[in-house]
Amino acid sequence: MKKYGIPFIILVSAIVIAALLVMSKEKPEKKQEEESIFLVETMDFQFENLEFLVYAQGSAQPKNRTVLSAQVSGKIVRLSENFVEGGFFKKGDILVELESDDYQTDLLLAEAELARAQAALEEEIARGRVAEQEWRSVNNTVAPELGLRKPQLAREQANLQAAEAQLQRAKRNLERTKIRAPYDGLVKSRNVNIGQVITMAGQIGEIFATDVAEVRLPLTDNDIAFIGDISARQPAVILQAQVAGETRFWQGTMVRNEAVLDESRRVIFGVVQIADPYNRIQENHQIPLRFGRFVKAEVSGISVDNVVKLPREVGRLDGTVLTVDTDSTLHINEVGVVRSDENYLYISSGLQPNHQVVLSAVPNPYEGMQVKVVDDEPLIQKTETADNAEVNL
Q1: Each residue of 94-137: pLDDT tens digit?
Q2: How far is CA 139 from the centre of its chain?
Q3: 358: how many CB neighbours lie within 10 A of its CB?
Q4: Distance of alpha carbon 163 from its chain centroid, rounded?
Q5: Which residues contact residue 217 at a Cβ distance below 8 angstroms, ignoring those fewer than 6 apart?
């Protein structure tokens, strides 16, 4: 009894006490748990009629450039003060003058030859008249052409025409000793100096016309689609560049595209023209647009009605946009995107006018999800749980 009875009694007593304690334990109190709702930032939107803009960049170049060359040979005796690199000139200005003594001599010889040919022609005319009178005094028949000296008359007429042509050439060659500017422009480079002898077709320098500047803009097929038909509508273009730390603007017009794809870049170049880029006629621009300056271009494109312009980051990878209605309920909208660029989405369908677009990133969203909009009153949902832990969802 002592060996087995006492331990058995102790074990049974412990079991009974434990059972009584378990049975007497109070059930845990049920506590209502506060579930936080996801906080989102939203923005209003509106449907509007938009004119699309196409962005590109390029450098300003002259529409016309010329490599000046001499049409006659000779020694350079005078250079214009403006015929220096960067110098401006007007159409018709004498830029280079060659020695003209030999060409003046040629002109005098041509004039003398013309006078001789005119005298010979008048003499031959007189001889023809005398021959005709002598023939009539002897014969009543029609005189032959040789008898009337008509072949000799034709020869002298041809000699006169040749002398007139030589005189015209001598005048042109004398005038060509003065090399004139073909248009208003500036000097890009000069290759000659005073005293230098230059041969026919020798290069004197390179000049740029300053009446019109052109900028070639690389455009993709998508850009061309949003610019529209350039031949029917020449779109306005705003050019801008940083000059001495300030942003400067110039106004231009896209007049054509080059119609051939660039094989290396697979783009089409659109050509923008800027009138009077150096402000030589009047102050059309803030500052002159110098040739060679790199500029960014904003091209006015086609117009589209009832489009929503949204920040690009609101678009999701699956082509949807999240919105919130007036009850703070989340909606997943499949939208029709007309166009997208690096900053914005342009949406034509799929959005409800009374919704707001969600700007915040929402992990694992679902249709009908309750959210809290920034600046709204706190929105709390009550749920019941079987323990005393507080759970935040």
Answers
A1: 999 999 999 999 999 999 999 999 999 898 888 878 777 766 66
A2: 86
A3: 22
A4: 55
A5: 56, 57, 58, 254, 269, 270, 271, 272, 297, 299
Structure tokens at 262: 């660039």
Helices first, then strands: H and E counts in the chain: 4, 24
**Structure confidence by residue, pLDDT tens digits, 182-212:** 999 999 999 999 999 999 999 999 999 999 9
- Give residue 231's identity as a one-letter amino acid code: S
| CA dist., res. 380 & res. 5, Å (int) | 62
Cβ neighbours of 302 (radius 10 Å): 15
CB atoms within 10 A of CB 90: 11
Which residue is associated with the tokens 């697979």? 266
pTM of the predicted protein model: 0.70
3-class SS of residue 375: coil
Write the secondary structure of 32-101 as one string of H (helix), E (strand) and C (coil). Answer: EEEEECEEECEECCCCEEEEEEEEEEEEEEECCEEEEECCCCEEEEEECCCCCCCCEECCCCEEEEECCH
Q: Are 71 and 200 in contact (CB under 8 A)?
A: yes
pLDDT in tens, 298-331: 999 888 899 999 999 999 888 899 999 988 899 9
Q: Which two tokens stand for residue 145?
A: 């052409």
